[in-house]
Design brief:
The protein is built from 22 helices and nine strands. The chain is of the alpha/beta class.
Length: 538
């Protein structure tokens, strides 16, 4: 049955010329392998006859050498093809995840599982298919070779073909569902584990480690059942194949024995017949690879699920750089019918109680969050800084310049603007200090995240509680430095501080995902509900 990922697997196999080289190498090696039993038979007959023919020995050595060298070349090509195909799939999948934006419809751990495990499995499709082609060609060639020796040998061998076909069909049917379930549950476990690792401190402080362990491991029975099903199917196939192969060889050997008694075959021909019987039954021995093929198809289906996900609507170009306009925007469970215009160059503060939708609105304004309804119009590049930034990159300096081509001077200027330069130059290796070795406080990490946003020189700068860990004086200095470093830029700040809101040109006040009011801080302060956002009703 055709699966959703089969088209992707075909595209993966066809994208590179190296599989053709591997196929050509396999053709030469397979031809040598099919000729080898006959050459060996000739050498045996020569030895038993007490003669010495140099050409026979040289022919045998040539065929054996071709097989050895061909196998070595095949191993190198297989590794290269698989690595390149895996990298190509991971690049496509990563780009798609980035295109889908935030929040992603796929859990973080599940996404990691697809990018790592599933792409690794699917990347081997060309090598797997070539292996099957070689096995089938070897089996057919062996039957033909047996027929050339004696048609009776081929007839005896062909009787086993329906049994082998039945084994293969049964194995595929029983394995498919278990393999898919195994892949899906593995992704679910990865997602739960990543969530727990991200919240280790919270879990420890709440004293719920045992409960969280149970939650992460809850899918394991389904995973174990799928794995056990795969192994049961594998075991059945192995013992059936283990019985079939020697039975076929005994039948061929018996028929060859009668051929020797009747003078149709020589002793060497019997040896060749056994060799061809083993080659012909190679397709049964390859049935373990059918599980690999099903796992590959299941992985490709999971990759295709992401690649086929609809791309969210992107904001249309605004009338001028830095303008942002929202018309009837809604995000399920977070925002409802938001209509808002932020002029280019304005400093806008988003305020509201916890859970009012501030971060979601900031994400929509900057393009990180996908809207379910309405239209977003924005023009210009966006720089983001978060409350808890992830510091990526080998060193602190590279973390600031992450994703850009910024040089040392630009990185330093951004750090100065973010009021973190004095901290960084006191680190053991300054800007070259490895991120893992930098003893940073929460506020210092926030300022590094802010510097990373500044270095991109964006037209729109979105700060999602990015200064929450700074004291009021430092925050005011950062605000002043931003005005100098990024003059005339549109700034959107999610904040809980009245002092920050007071400095804004425009305040957007949210309640339960709706705009409760807009204006300056002074204008809104007369509303006791607005004051309660900062005072808690006191």
């Amino acid at each position: 049955m055709r699966k959703s990922g089969d088209r992707l697997l075909l595209a993966t196999a066809k994208r590179d010329y190296r599989p053709w080289l591997m196929l050509l190498n396999a053709a030469v090696t397979t031809a040598a392998g099919l000729l080898l039993p006959t050459a060996l038979a000739g050498a045996v007959d020569m030895a038993l006859g007490g003669t010495f023919v140099l050409a026979t020995i040289l022919w045998l050595l040539l065929l054996a050498s071709i097989e050895v060298v061909g196998d070595a070349i095949g191993i190198v090509l297989a590794a290269s093809i698989t690595a390149r195909a895996t990298a190509w799939l991971r690049r496509r999948l990563t780009q798609r995840f980035l295109t889908l934006g935030h929040p992603s419809p796929f859990a973080a751990g599940d996404a990691v599982s697809r990018v790592t495990g599933d792409c690794g499995n699917a990347g081997g499709i060309a090598v797997t298919l070539i292996g099957f082609v070689v096995t089938v060609v070897s089996s057919v060639g062996s039957v033909i070779a047996l027929a050339l020796l004696d048609w009776r040998l081929a007839a005896v061998f062909v009787v086993s073909v329906p049994l082998a076909g039945l084994l293969i069909r049964t194995h595929l049917r029983l394995t498919a569902d278990d393999v898919l379930t195994y892949q899906e549950v593995s992704g679910e476990v990865s997602a739960r584990l990543l969530d727990s690792v991200s919240g280790l401190r919270t879990i420890a402080s709440a004293g719920i480690a045992d409960r969280e362990t149970d939650r992460v491991l809850q899918p394991l029975p389904r995973l174990a059942a799928a794995g056990a099903g795969m192994w049961r199917t594998q075991a059945k196939m192995m013992w059936r194949a283990g019985l079939l192969l020697p039975a076929v060889e005994v039948a061929v050997l018996t028929a060859a024995g009668f051929g020797v008694l009747q003078g149709r075959l020589s002793t060497g021909d019997v040896l060749a017949a056994l060799g061809y019987a083993a080659l012909g039954m190679g397709i049964v021995g390859q049935m373990t690879q059918l599980t690999v093929l099903e796992r590959t198809r299941a992985s490709a289906g999971r990759i295709a699920e992401v690649l086929d996900s609809p791309v969210p609507r992107r904001p249309a170009a605004g009338s001028s750089t830095g303008d942002i306009e929202l018309r009837g925007v809604s995000v399920d469970g977070a925002l409802h019918d938001i209509t808002l215009t932020i002029p280019a160059g304005a400093f806008t503060a988003i305020v509201g109680a916890s859970g009012s939708g501030k971060s979601t609105l900031a994400g929509v304004l900057g393009g990180l969050s996908v809207v379910d309804a309405g239209e977003v119009s924005r023009r210009g590049t966006v720089g983001y800084a978060f409350e808890r930034p992830a510091l990526l990159g080998a060193t602190i300096g590279r973390s600031i310049g992450y994703g850009t081509g910024a040089d040392e001077d630009q990185v330093r200027d951004a750090a100065v603007a973010a009021q973190v330069h004095d901290v960084l130059i006191r680190l053991p290796q300054g800007y070259e200090t490895p991120v893992a070795d930098a003893p940073l406080s929460g506020g210092e990490a926030q300022r590094i995240g802010l510097a990373r946003a500044i270095v991109r020189d964006p037209e729109v700068l979105v700060l999602d509680d990015a200064t929450a860990s700074l004291d009021t004086v430092t925050e005011a200095k950062v605000d002043k430095a931003l005005t100098t470093a990024l003059p005339g830029r549109t700034r959107v700040v999610v904040t809980h501080r009245p002092a920050t809101a007071a400095r804004a040109d425009l305040v957007v006040w949210l309640e339960d995902g709706r705009i409760a009011g807009t204006g300056t801080h002074a204008q809104l302060w007369d509303d006791e509900n607005y004051r309660a956002v900062f005072t808690g009703g006191e």
